[in-house]
Amino acid sequence: MSQNRAIELVENQEWLGKAGAALQPVIIGAFEEGGEMGQKLKNILHGTWLGHPLHPVITDIPVGAWSVAAALDSIELAGNSKYKKGADAAVVIGIAGAVGAAVTGLTDWTGTNGKKRKIGLLHGVLNLTGTALYATSLVLRNKKKTRNTGLALSMAGYGIVSLAAYLGGHLVFGEQIGVDHTATSEEYPKKFVPVLAESELPENSMKAVKAADIQVLLARKNGALFAIANTCSHLGGPLDEGELRDDLTVKCPWHGSVFSLKDGTVVNGPATEQQPQFEVRTQNGQIEVSLKSR
Ligand code: FES
Fold this sequence. Notes:
Helix content: 40-55%
Bound molecules: FE2/S2 (inorganic) cluster
Low-confidence stretches: none
Strand content: 15-25%
Number of strands: 10
Shape: elongated
Largest sheet: 4 strands, antiparallel
Radius of gyration: 24 Å
């Protein structure tokens, strides 16, 4: 089966759509229930503080540890049990990392919909299945009589998490989740260019304008002008269709990321990368913008 056909097969699974639609509001609701603390926790788990998604950083732990375990288990199965303690320790480290990866991944998954949500859900289910196999393997490894069954379960777990990793890779490279959707700075105007007549941007309003080939969000609030990239760094949502807020922030209409108009920084995720910010000035009745160096 070709790679595209395999992904298509996942996308066509109705049960994944139904399960995702039922589960996602429960998780979002749990964060909302926690009020400000819930939002802070969500930001931490997304990686807003890191300026980079946290989930892919943590997934390296189980993938690395379980790869080591697979190599050491293979040596044991070939008749040399010198490294069996190391293999068992690697399984434990992998399970600890998998818990962190599950929590951060589930949080990121709340900002997906459509086929991304389906693929993300299957990615998570496979990882949970693989982790359960490793946990069972850990118990069986401790007894001589069941050790070989334990090793076999680890190998099965390794196969399943590898499949999950493939889907995770597709989410990033195919569906562009976790990718900075504003990362095209070479196309941003680095010298002032006129974008709009001053009279066309009343107080307390915002508008998307074109500067070179880039969409820029212009906003006028409290008598001041602000300009940041209009395409949301999370998944490319149009910020001009979002909410201009009194605290000089803008909320994305797609998944609710909040950015400061003053400097483009992320106030609330799921976005983790800040919006490019522009210097703004008025010349001869025109509003002009120029990229502020990032
Ligand atoms: S596109 Fe997801 S928060 Fe903006």
